[in-house]
Structure formats: C-alpha cells, structure tokens
Amino acid sequence: xxxxxxxxxxxxxxxxxxxxxxxxxxxxxxxxxxxxxxxxxxxxxxxxxxxxxxxxxxxxxxxxxxxxxxxxxxxxxxxxxxxxxxxxxxxxxxxxxxxxxxxxxxxxxxxxxxxxxxxxxxxxxxxxxxxxxxxxxxxxxxxxxxxxxxxxxxxxxxxxxxxxxxxxxxxxxxxxxxxxxxxxxx
Length: 186
Prior knowledge:
disordered C terminus, alpha/beta, 4 helices, Dihydrofolate Reductase, subunit A
C-alpha cells in the first residue's frame, strides 16, 4: 500500500485560506473547540503532516506547537538549522518534489499523510497525490487573499462523500479525488 495524501482545511466561502499577508485571525472566532468538526479523529488517522514553509511559519507563531505527529516542511529556503531546538526530532525539512517525498514517506512506513498549506496542496493535487479533501467553509467573505486552489493541467474529478453543517455556520464537505480527467481545457 502506498502512502496517500489527505487534506483537512478551512476556507472562507469565497475560497481563501488566509488574507494576502498570511493572516488567519479571521478563523479564530470559529475555532472555539465547542464543535466537533472531526479534526481530532482526522489527526488520529494520519501518520504525520506535510506542509509548506508559510504554514510552518504560521504554526510557529502559535502559543504552543499544535502537532503531536511528525511534520515534514517542504522548503528550498529553510534547512534543518532553522528548526527551533524544542522541535528537533519532531520537524524535518525536505526539498523533495511531492512524488519523491511520498515515496520516501512510504519507505519510512507512513500510510496516510496530512497535506497542508495552499501551495503544497496545489502541488500535490497537480501530481494527483491527494486521495480526499475535507473542506470546511467558514461563513465569511474575505474578498481577496491566498486561494486554496490554483491552476491545474487537467480537471480533477471529485466524488461527494458527505456534507454537514454546524450551529456556528461552518459547512464541511468531504470529497474523494477520483481521477484526473483528460478532457480538453477550455
């Protein structure tokens, strides 16, 4: 069995994961912990996380390191020396391309990888390395920012698995990525 990539992410209704400057403060009023959105169960299902430099730097700004699983940061700008001492052994830096990284994670025994961060998710989608996406839409319009999705060379077919809504206004949809579609792009 090969390592599979899985996404669990929140966006504004208009599809942004952060403001243009990387700020995610708008999420805080919805991240109260009073609703079970399935995050803990999702985290229990993965062997570790793959994220980009921007997501890593955002996580470093939190009061406490939020992950108990191993984290691989994809970056050409960072090195192992850039990892804070308290995260040594928990975080590693990789310059591998998505496919090569998934092969390395497979060799290391990972079966399920949580893929996080806009550019990283986009790269893994382009390389058809994402098995499913749990997308939580937050009831806010930002108007601009960092989009979750980017350009693709082919259409990717998604199969709707489930949608649920929460009292806070969050709407969460799970999609299975079924296949790259070779239909002509218009």
